[in-house]
Design goal:
Beta-Lactamase; eight-stranded mixed beta barrel; six-stranded antiparallel sheet; 29 helices; 33 strands; 25% strand; elongated; binds ligand LFPHGCPZ; GAF-like_dom_sf
């Protein structure tokens, strides 16, 4: 229901203040309305309050919904007039005619309203009676209605006062709760913080203390205030003077109160308190000394403990370093503390190291394996001990023994590592000295028998595991005793020291050269070949080097001495004997060398010895053969399927003065082993070039390319390329006449270098043939890379080509492969017509073999 009149702000405020709007139904107003209706004998009575946009019917009797607009209108008029308003017949009232016309015949003809006016004179509502027919209202009745209206207003005002009272009460309760909470909160805070508060009256020197102060001092809360003297009774006697002085100064305004002193509780317990205070002005101009007292006993003790710990750690003789616990990876954990001993030992001031990772202490000699071990432990937050080398600020290495422990200062999480380090440089030096004495010969500085035996045991084990061989060379100086007897022990010692160096020069660094005592030395060779004969050859080479190393005279002061060794050799392999037995065998072999005339090498094993003898002899004969020109070349033709000669292969032979003609299989291995293959290879090339030049000179034959076999060791020698080009150039023949035959094994080693070398030779016109194809790696990958001209099918496949389908399939595959890759293909070892026919059927067009001609001297080709 809306009100048509302009809201009066004051009226609204008054209504709100009276809490009448929106309030529930109250019987007292209903009774008033009913009484007004019956008293005036009207069918309708109303008590309404006029809001901003609404009429609130606080009580109504007989009013229908259709009556409401007109009733509201009259109420608004009453409010506006602020005095009794009577309309005896609405339709006769010219002032309201326009209003009544809009609504047709009005439901209400008679209206008498009394404004409800507050003490402040504000009309907030209306008490009215209405009738549906016109009528008159006597003055006495109107006066009575006015009394009723005042009564209604009084009721409203009483109601308002009651609300005000309630509001005041609830707000007081809230304040009370707030205060209560604050006071409890204050007390709790003080208790938790062990912080009491006090105020001291500067005239009476009496103190008012908070509850917590009593608790801290351990005294009962008796009276509201205590005297300063009383307070002092709890202060430790020795601290009285300080407390009085501090309080006096604070009162004088010289300095705020701030001191730590002891108190003594009744039970004699001593506690530490921190007093703080300052002057404070309160409302009436009075000045107080207000302050706090805090029980700091626990933190005081732990601070003292920390100080003690810090001072102690700072002063201990061991270096102490504390780092954070992370990061373990780069840049490493940061140093947070180092003590004085650390500074003294490393030469670094703590300001230079705090914040850095301890890694700056490491250097070239710091043991990687130890660092890895430490790291692994730290990653798992485990304690670890290690002995490592660190470096001083000047870069000097020193040994430390260090214990690192993880530290968790908060909960269980490791936050730091503490490292305690002792300098063990001297101990290490002493240990080194002891070790040298225990394991090394002081005269020659070589390992002694003890260390040798240790290493020998180890070497035997390694050989067994790796399934290869090792060797023991027992060396005894010939006629050493007579040197000692004639020139004296000084000279003897001098010789022994020099022998030691020469023996070291004869062996590899990985081998052990030891002195057993006197003039006896041993060399332990490890990692020799798997095959005992090959291993014996390797040991023999070392023995030869030793003999050669003794050829130059030894310089013993102003005396040149010639000395020879006798060397006994024994091998050990997977079936090796124990170290002692091996030593005995090598010793026995050495005696054999002595009895065979000294300055010699002898093997313990007879079969080995004879093989070595043969090899040594062959080696000597080979060298002589090169000098005396005992090598010859035979040539074998290569033909096409028309029988035309398309190539020639040069094959070396050794015309041995005693043993007759020797074939490459008898001596090429030796030439490769002793390195003379380069020498022989040069001779072969030279010889072939001369032969080609001669054939070309005669002009009675078309000279096809001549194939020369080149072994792997020869090809990879750094002199091979320049030597070959030099010989060819000097011979003046066209390099097109030369074809180099290489085996697969020679080519797959050092692939890139091989391809480069072949390419350079090929650029000069030299051709390349791949020998023995199919027996080795046969990898398509390397075939594609190599600058080849020709592939030779190994004679092993040709031999059974007619009977073995597998071999036939291989030859067919090789032929097809060559066709695809664009290589010539030559089948070697063709011994009959059937083999040739089969190869021809498979598409091979070039052959070499006894069927077409054996290797023969040039003149018989
Ligand atoms: N580094 C050098 N190696 C060389 C040199 N000369 C030869 N050799 C290498 O020795 C291998 C064997 O040579 P050789 O004993 O001379 O045998 C060749 C022929 O005699 C033999 N052949 C030829 N036809 C047949 C036959 O029908 N049947 C049969 N059983 N054997 C036959 O084959 C050898 C030639 O083969 P290849 O070289 O593979 O073409 C020799 O393979 C070279 O590796 C040298 O100067 N330097």
């Amino acid at each position: 229901m809306t009100t048509s009149s302009t809201p009066d702000k004051m009226r609204l405020d008054a209504q709100y203040a009276s809490d009448m709007l929106n309030s529930p139904v109250e019987p007292v107003f209903d009774e008033l309305a009913l009484f007004a209706a019956s008293f005036c004998a009207t069918p309708i009575a109303l008590i309404s309050l006029i809001g901003k946009s609404q009429h609130w019917y606080k009580a109504s009797a007989g009013l229908t919904e259709s009556d409401q607009p007109l009733a509201n209108f009259f109420c608004d008029q009453t409010i506006a007039r602020k005095r009794p308003f009577v309309v005896e017949d609405a339709i006769r009232h010219p002032e309201f005619l326009h209003k009544l016309k809009k609504g047709g015949v009005p439901g209400i003809r008679f209206f008498a309203g009394l404004p409800l006016i507050t003490e402040d004179g504000i009309a907030i509502g209306v008490l009215s009676v209405m009738d549906r027919k016109p009528r008159k209202l006597s003055q006495s009745k109107l006066d009575s209605l006015a009394i009723l209206a005042r009564h209604a207003m009084t009721t409203i005002e009483l109601r308002h006062q009651r609300s005000e009272l309630q509001r005041a009460l609830s707000s007081r309760e809230e304040v009370y709760h707030q205060l209560h909470w604050q006071s409890r909160h204050f007390r709790e805070s003080q208790r938790i913080a062990k912080l009491g508060s006090w105020e001291m009256d500067l005239v009476s020197w009496r103190l008012q203390l908070s509850d917590e102060v009593y608790r801290i001092f351990g005294v009962e809360h008796m009276s509201p205030t205590v005297s300063f003297d009383n307070y002092l009774q709890s202060v430790h006697r020795e601290d009285h003077a300080r407390v009085i002085q501090a309080v006096t100064q604070a009162i004088a305004g010289q300095s705020p109160l701030d001191l730590i002193h002891r108190i003594v509780r009744k039970n004699k317990e001593i506690r530490f308190v921190h007093e703080r205070g300052q002057l404070m002005a309160i409302e009436d101009g009075q000045v107080l000394l207000a302050g706090t007292v805090q029980d700091i006993t626990d933190s005081y003790h732990s601070q003292r403990e920390r100080d003690l710990l810090y001072t102690s750690i700072s002063k201990v003789n061991d270096s102490v370093m504390i780092t954070e616990a992370w990061p373990i990876d780069e840049p490493g954990p940061r140093i947070v503390f180092v003590n004085r001993a650390f500074e003294e030992r490393t030469g670094y001031d703590h300001s230079e190291v705090i914040g850095r990772s301890p890694r700056f202490l490491q250097g070239i000699q710091t043991q990687r394996d130890q660092l890895d071990r430490i790291r692994a432990a730290l990653e798992n937050h485990q304690p670890v001990s290690a002995e490592i080398i660190n470096y001083t600020r000047e870069g000097k290495p020193f040994w430390i023994e260090m214990d690192i422990a993880p530290v968790a200062i908060q909960g269980n999480d490791v936050t730091h590592f503490v490292s305690v380090q002792r300098d063990i440089t001297q101990r290490k030096a002493a240990e080194g000295q002891i070790e040298r004495l225990a394991f090394f010969d002081p005269l020659t500085k070589l390992p002694n028998r003890r260390l040798l035996m240790d290493r020998l045991e180890h070497a035997i084990e390694t050989a067994r595991r790796k399934r290869n061989c090792g060797a023991l060379l027992f060396i005894d100086l010939d006629n050493f005793k007579s040197l000692n007897d004639t020139l004296g022990h000084d000279k003897g010692d001098l010789l022994l020291a020099q022998v030691a160096r020469r023996l070291e020069n004869s062996a590899r660094k990985s081998n052990t050269v030891a002195r057993l005592g006197g003039d006896e030395f041993v060399i332990l060779l490890e990692d020799l070949a798997v095959d005992p004969i090959e291993a014996a050859a390797e040991a023999e080479i070392v023995g030869e080097k030793i003999l050669a190393g003794f050829v130059p005279p030894f310089n013993l002061g102003n005396y040149e001495h010639h000395c020879t060794p006798s060397i006994g050799v024994t091998l050990f392999d997977t079936k090796a004997l124990g170290a002692d037995d091996l030593m005995k065998r090598a010793d026995l072999a050495m005696y054999q060398a002595k009895s065979d005339g000294r300055n010699a090498i002898r093997f313990f094993d007879k079969r080995m010895q004879s093989q070595i003898n043969t090899r040594v002899m062959l080696d000597r004969e080979f060298r002589r053969a090169l000098k005396e020109g005992q090598f010859v070349l035979h040539y074998q033709r290569q033909v096409d399927d028309m029988g035309k000669v398309t190539g020639i292969e040069a094959l070396v032979r050794w015309q041995h003065p005693r043993r007759g003609m020797l074939y490459p299989s008898d001596f090429i291995w030796l030439a490769e082993e002793n390195g003379l293959i380069m020498h022989l290879g040069r001779w072969v090339l030279q010889c072939v070039c001369n032969q080609v030049a001669e054939w070309l000179q005669h002009g009675d034959m078309v000279v096809p390319p001549v194939a020369i076999n080149v072994s792997a060791r020869q090809f990879h020698h750094h002199d091979f390329l320049p030597n070959t080009l030099e010989i060819l150039e000097k011979s003046g023949i066209d390099p097109q006449h030369i074809k180099l035959e290489l085996t697969e094994s020679a080519l797959v080693e050092h692939m890139d270098a091989t391809v480069a070398k072949m390419s350079e030779l090929r650029a000069h016109g030299i051709r390349f043939s791949l020998d023995d194809f199919g027996t080795g790696y046969s990898s398509l990958a390397y075939l594609k890379k190599l600058p080849l001209d020709e592939i030779k099918i190994d004679r092993a496949f040709v031999r059974d080509i007619l009977t073995d389908p597998g071999d036939a399939a291989i030859t067919q595959t090789i032929v097809s492969l060559c066709q695809i890759l664009g290589f010539d293909v030559v089948a070697e070892g063709v011994e009959n017509e059937g083999q040739q026919a089969m190869l021809a059927l498979q598409g091979c067009r070039h052959y070499q073999g006894y069927w077409f001609g054996r290797p023969v001297p040039a003149g018989q080709l």
